[in-house]
Amino acid sequence: MSNYSIAEIRELGQPASVMNRRVAEHWTGPAYLRKFSPYVSYIFLKLHFSPTSVTWLMVLLGWLASWILTNPALWAVFLVFVLAQVQMLLDCSDGEVARVTKKFNPAGIYVDRIGHYTTESFFAVAFGIRLFQNGDLRDVVWGLLLALLIVFNKLLNDLVHVTRALSGLEKLSENPKVAVPNNILLKSVKVLFKLLPIHKLFHSIELAFIFLISGLIQYFFIENFERFTLQFLTIAAFVVVVGHTAAILNSNRLKS
């Protein structure tokens, strides 16, 4: 059956277990994208797209946005911002198609991870290339370093699951208390990160928004502001990686 109504797609594709989960759902989903994603899922269901094929579209769209970002023109950051929104919309839709059709494939999760890892790291590299066209090779180096830090920060979470699996521990609990550091100082730092959530700057949507604002500021007000933005993001990413590593090692995430 492919003739699902929008109401049925919402009911089957957006259960409470998905809408209320602590991790894995970007804030844009419940904020506004989940309001539109059933209409996109409706089209994919009508066309008999598999969930994994929708995920591959999400991946390819992220790569396209990264390539466009290398263009130094102002229109490029506008388009990248729009494409980042559409990519996240597809990220909502692939799961809805899977839940509606009951076609669950581990390969889909694998491809989804490829999409997020590559898009966010490609964004960093592409932004460095965008600036390099002004002639300074150091911009590319900053971009590559930012990409490395972004990937490493994402790996830290995956390594928790790998470590637990290799140690014979059960799946990590969704209870937020598990992620709270045991060290008093690190608890205070975690509270600070909640007030100043720089660790949330490195998703594709946030990066695209930052690139757009940075491009506008540089075009209208401050020369070389994009270069300052790239360097700030890289330093912030280093701080996040150090803090993230310390928080994991001092929490119960690696314990039974």
List keywords for this structure.
mainly alpha, Four Helix Bundle (Hemerythrin (Met), subunit A)
List the topology elements:
Elements: H1 6-13, H2 16-19, H3 28-46, H4 51-69, H5 74-101, H6 106-132, H7 138-166, H8 184-195, H9 204-220, H10 225-249
Helix pairs in contact: 1-3, 1-5, 3-5, 4-5, 4-6, 5-9, 6-7, 6-9, 7-10
Short description:
This protein has 256 residues and is mainly alpha-helical. It has helices at 6-13, 16-19, 28-46, 51-69, 74-101, 106-132, 138-166, 184-195, 204-220, 225-249.
Describe this structure in words.
The chain contains ten helices and no strands. The protein has helices at residues 6-13, 16-19, 28-46, 51-69, 74-101, 106-132, 138-166, 184-195, 204-220, 225-249. Helix 3 (28-46) crosses helix 5 (74-101) and helix 4 (51-69) runs parallel beside helix 6 (106-132). The mean pLDDT is 92. The chain has a single domain (6-249), classed as CDP-alcohol phosphotransferase transmembrane (TM) domain (Four Helix Bundle (Hemerythrin (Met), subunit A), Up-down Bundle). Helix content is 73%, strand content 0%. By secondary structure, it is mostly helical.
